[in-house]
Design brief:
Layout (H helix, E strand, L loop, with lengths): L10 E5 L3 H13 L3 E5 L2 H10 L4 E5 L7 H11 L4 E6 L3 H9 L4 E5 L3 H13 L5 H5 L4 E3 L2 E4 L4 E3 L5 E2 L3 H12 L4 E2 L1 H8 L7 H16 L9 E4 L3 E4 L3 E3 L1
Parallel strand pairs: 1-2, 1-3, 3-4, 4-5
Antiparallel strand pairs: 6-7, 6-13, 7-8, 8-9, 10-12, 11-12
Helix pairs in contact: 1-5, 7-9, 8-9
Subcellular location: Cytoplasm
Protein name: Regulatory protein VirG
GO cellular component, one term: protein-DNA complex
Length: about 240
């Protein structure tokens, strides 16, 4: 008799030098049916990534040796894995910098392990753990670009794949589904959960700015992602099935 396929548990890498914090979060993730691995610094993180793959990385800013910002830049240059950054309470500049260099979300210390777990689940649903929702989506085309929701891939007019973070991809998908419609920052946050832990306006603006850097010919004079004064944003491209 054939055995049913084993359920693949999400694998989370926690890069945190405070062992008590890391152990507390790992324990909560295990209770939530996830696998957790702890790395105390960038060297241990690299070793873990060399030995296996992870579905999401929780990354502390203050680490011995190479700091979290540097590690985030390095990770984002080579992979699209969702990243949640842990920052010191009240350090807004840390949170903004984290989003600007490619983090998908951030949480300030001290934090609730269950809150972080909820954020992890939210990001995972929007990445690789929503196959039923992705299967009904068709690829879309705009201004020569192609967005494939099932594979979560974006290709430029030349056919080259462009790397987007989870938050950036989710934002672009929402815009493609609503071309010509003004979307408020609150609506964008509700659809994407981008930057859940911070001020709505600043978090969404940072992600939109990064998205413009990747899809606009001139990000300083955007033709696709328009800012609507006192409104939000509007996707000005014509979107059609690919």
């Amino acid at each position: 008799m054939n055995q049913p396929n084993a359920i693949k548990l999400p694998s989370i890498l926690i890069v945190e030098d405070d062992f008590e914090i890391a152990r507390m979060l790992a324990s909560t993730l295990t209770e939530a049916n996830m696998k957790a691995r702890i790395a105390g610094d960038g060297i241990e993180m690299d070793s873990c990534l060399h030995r296996g793959t992870f579905d999401l990385i929780v990354l502390d800013v203050m680490l011995p040796g190479e700091d979290g910002f540097s590690l985030c830049r390095r990770l984002r240059a080579s992979m699209t894995v969702p990243i949640i950054m842990l920052t010191a309470q009240g350090e807004e500049i840390d949170r903004i910098v984290g989003l600007e260099i490619g983090a998908d979300d951030y949480v300030t210390k001290p934090f609730s392990a269950r809150e972080v777990t909820a954020r992890i689940k939210s990001l995972l649903r929007r990445a690789a753990y929503a196959p039923a929702e992705q299967e009904v989506r068709r690829p879309l085309r705009f201004d020569g670009w192609t967005l494939d929701p099932q594979r979560r891939q974006v290709r430029d007019p030349s056919g080259a794949r462009v790397s987007l973070t989870t938050a950036e991809f989710d934002l672009l998908l929402v815009f493609c589904k609503n071309p010509g419609r003004i979307l408020t920052r609150e609506q964008l946050l509700a659809h994407t959960h981008a930057g859940l832990a911070g001020p709505i306006q600043r978090s969404i603006d940072v992600h939109v700015g990064r998205l413009r850097q990747k899809i606009e010919a001139d990000p300083s004079e955007p033709l696709l992602l328009k800012t609507v004064r006192l409104g939000g944003y509007m996707f000005a491209a014509t979107v059609e099935p690919a």
